[in-house]
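Review this chain:
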Amino acid sequence: MEIRFKSSECNGRELVKSFNKDFETSFLSEKEYSDFKHSGSGIVKEIHLNNAFVLFQDQNIQNSENHTIQVVQNHPVFLLQIVIDGDVTFSFNENICSEFNLNKNMYNLFYIPPSKNVYKYLNHKKRILNIYFTAPFLECKMGTCFLKNSKKYQQAKKENELCCFFNKGLVLNRQLRNIVNDFLTCSYGGVIKQSYLESKLTELLLIALASNDSDSIINKLRKEDRESLVRIESYIRSHLETELSIKNLSELAGFNTSKFKTVFKQVYGIPVFQYITSLRIEKAMQLISKHDYTIAQASYEVGYKNPQHFTVAFKKKLGYLPSQLINNGQ
């Protein structure tokens, strides 16, 4: 099995990856690339686990107009693509008439037969997690009925065409974001790291693909409402230091307050204020543990006017004091 990645951002440099059947391997393999001096900054990280190959792109590109990656594969694969930041257009077999779009804070599952495909990135910044695997791995995790009951997949397989499992994509909710973050920031080593990453990958796959209720909710929303909800979630993330009220967020989304609270909880799994608190504590943890912020500095940075109020919220959610982050880091 072989997958070739050819990127326009690296002067046409081609990355060729060869694998055993079904991505089989007995050990964890990791590589990282950061040679983007003439086109931008960031990293591309690859992780090869047993039965899965993961490619994580975290980059800032100088010229997004011609930013493309061509992917050629000689074996059918499944791709779980998670767009944390940026927007991507996927052209199957280089045919611009069969394009699929995936926006920020969304994900989708694709079945891709042997083909030559092009991914075009529409923003300067991108953070995208691509997880490749084959049918036996998916059936092992989700059961054989997942594929047997998918008429779209069965038809696509028969006609050697691409299959997009979720027409409009699904929202990357907080639960999935946390799993993705755990997967990408694992600090273990050796065999423990391999076991941890494999367990997190299984958890991510199960929760992402078992989101039938969320899919139904999203599909029932008008396109404008769905886009508004994703936009507001992004707005919340980028304005954690400000006062965020239900009234203002509802107005920005174009909903009345009742509808906004109801739909937000249905799609993201928890009430909006609980979601905001979780994001604030998550960001504060990173500022304290990775960027040497004091507790007071971190609390102000995520919107708490009183550090004591932040400490109370932190302790209530996680069961320990934020000062322990500093002590553990020494």
Observations:
- Residues 221-329 form a domain with the Arc Repressor Mutant, subunit A fold (CATH 1.10.10.60).
- The CA atoms of residues 23 and 51 lie 4 Å apart.
